[in-house]
């Protein structure tokens, strides 16, 4: 990584942390009362896309959540995978659609962050700066992500899934905690 990239990354991380104080007070949400859920993830191939798609089906069918939207960050600008081209419930943005500091600046990211989701679930252990900006700007009332002291300002609840946790293990823990958390107890 050259010096300019390191400086830009440092400035980007500082911008993210500086905006942490602007965060709206979270409203604890669980799957029982949620009407909408947002998922964010980094494009990792068709296999991972299928896992996300299955998780969307699970949230709709098993948890009864009527609105589930997934947003992917695609780092390869040259070729968007064919399975991402159907944008009904799955949307994406690419590196070309970010600014110098890696902040998304495209229409689909703006629409996503302006939506008032009940729950946002970050599916990334090590999210890119672009996804961190997206999570921070999103108006979701309750944000869930992997445990990380460095990114604690982004989330309302963090899941400590383990260093080698698979997607399924992480999703299982998210499901467990978002099913047992009680809105009334959390406010006390």
What attributes does this structure have?
6 helices, single chain, 36% helix, globular, 188 residues, 6-stranded parallel beta sheet, Rossmann fold, alpha/beta
Describe it.
By secondary structure, this protein is of the alpha/beta class. It has a single domain (3-187), classed as Rossmann fold (3-Layer(aba) Sandwich), CATH 3.40.50. It has six helices and six strands; from the N terminus they run H-E-H-E-E-H-E-H-E-E-H-H. The protein has helices at 3-18, 46-61, 107-114, 129-137, 167-180, 183-187; strands at 36-42, 67-74, 90-94, 119-122, 142-146, 157-159. The protein has a six-stranded parallel beta sheet, with helices on both faces. Strand 4 (119-122), helix 4 and strand 5 (142-146) form a beta-alpha-beta unit. Helix 1 (3-18) packs parallel to helix 4. The chain is globular, with a radius of gyration of 16 Å. The termini are far apart. The mean pLDDT is 86.
> How many separate domains?
1
Structural class: alpha/beta
First-to-last CA distance = 47 Å
Tell me, briefly, the overall form. Answer: globular
Question: Considering DSSP H and I runs of 4 or more, what fraction of the residues is helical?
Answer: 25-40%
| Adjacency order of strands in the biggest sheet | 3-2-1-4-5-6
């Amino acid at each position: 990584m050259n010096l300019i990239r390191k400086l830009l990354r440092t400035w980007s991380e500082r911008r993210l942390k500086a905006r942490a104080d602007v965060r709206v007070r979270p409203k604890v949400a669980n799957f029982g009362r949620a009407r909408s859920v947002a998922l964010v993830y980094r494009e990792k191939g068709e296999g991972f896309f299928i896992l996300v798609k299955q998780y969307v089906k699970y949230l709709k069918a098993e948890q009864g959540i009527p609105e589930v939207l997934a947003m992917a960050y695609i780092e390869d600008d040259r070729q968007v995978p064919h399975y991402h081209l159907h944008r009904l419930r799955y949307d994406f943005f690419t590196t070309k659609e970010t600014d110098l500091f890696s902040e998304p600046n495209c229409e689909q990211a703006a629409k996503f962050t302006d939506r008032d989701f009940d729950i946002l679930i970050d599916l990334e252990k090590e999210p890119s700066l672009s996804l961190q900006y997206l999570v921070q700007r999103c108006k979701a009332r309750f944000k869930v992500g992997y445990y990380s002291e460095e990114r604690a300002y982004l989330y309302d609840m963090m899941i400590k899934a383990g260093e080698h946790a698979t997607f399924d293990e992480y999703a299982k823990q998210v499901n467990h905690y978002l099913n047992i958390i009680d809105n009334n107890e959390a406010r006390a």
